[in-house]
Each structure stands twice: as C-alpha cells, then as structure tokens.
Amino acid sequence: MSLYTEKIIKIVRELAIPILKNEALELVDIEFQREARGWVLRVYIHKQDGVSLRDCTLVSQQLSDVLDIEDPIDTAYTLEVSSPGLTRILKKREDYEGHVGRLLKIKTYQEIYGQKIFKGELLGFKNGMVIIKINEKNYKIPYKLIAKAHLDINF
C-alpha cells in the first residue's frame, strides 16, 4: 500500500467514525485502490443485527457530503459503502475474537505445518496466535504471518 493510499484511508477513517457512531454502526474496513474503472473508495460497515440498504445509503450520503467539504482526495473516485458480507475479511484481533466458532480460511506468507492455506473452525486469538481447528486438530498460526484471513462458508 502506498503512502498516498494509507494517508487517504486514515483521513476517511477519521471522517467516517463519527458518522457511524451516530448511526450505531461500526467501521470494519476501508479500501482505496485503483481498478480498471478508476479509483474506488470502499467503506465496509457492520451492525449487530445486520446492515440494511438504508444504513448503506445513509452512510454513503453523509460521508460523501463530508468528503466533498473536506476534499482529501485529489482524484476522481467512486464511493461504495457496504456490509463486508458473509465472507468478511478479518484484520484486527477484535475481528477474530468476534467470530469464534465460525469457519475461517487463512493464507500465510510462508509455510507453517507444511502448508500456506488453512481452513477450519476459529477457536480464538491468544498471545499473538490465531487458533484454528482442522479435522479435530488445533493449529496455532502466528498473527504476523497471516497474509489474508476471511470467514468461509460450507456448502
């Protein structure tokens, strides 16, 4: 991630949090990236009883108004506000702690236990380790070695 992208995400986070708190919503993540159709600013929100279309619309309108006034982004972009969905990405310790018992898929930067991809039940987060159960065996995966982790769905 570039310094420019990090700066934009930090500013948007500071602008979004008061809006979300006012609506009893939680900020999950912010992405700002260049795609084929141009720059996209994605804001993922969460609410305990589920995010509605109304929630997304309200946050989008309010955040858009604030971004127009503050004008921290010097290029054209598209603002998208949504729920992180069923396969939400887990980034922070709190994300892991809030989804104990759920199916999780983890990709690591390097091999651990002879593999780089793990899929199993999330048991917890303790002492910098994500604990996951796969086929009745528990694995401790160092948080700092996780490249990507997201909830998964069994079909």
What does this protein look like?
The model has no long low-confidence stretch (mean pLDDT 93). The chain has helices spanning 3-22, 53-70, 93-97; strands spanning 26-35, 38-46, 77-82, 103-112, 115-126, 129-134, 137-142, 146-151. It contains 3 helices and 8 strands. It has 2 domains: 3-82, GMP Synthetase, Chain A, domain 3, CATH 3.30.300; 93-151, SH3 type barrels (Roll), CATH 2.30.30. The strands form 2 sheets. It has a 5-stranded antiparallel β-sheet with strand order 7-6-5-4-8. A 3-stranded mixed β-sheet has the order 1-2-3. Helix 2 (53-70) links the parallel strand 2 (38-46) and strand 3. Helix 1 packs across helix 2 (53-70). The protein is an alpha+beta fold. The protein is globular, with a radius of gyration of 17 Å. Helix content is 28%, strand content 42%.
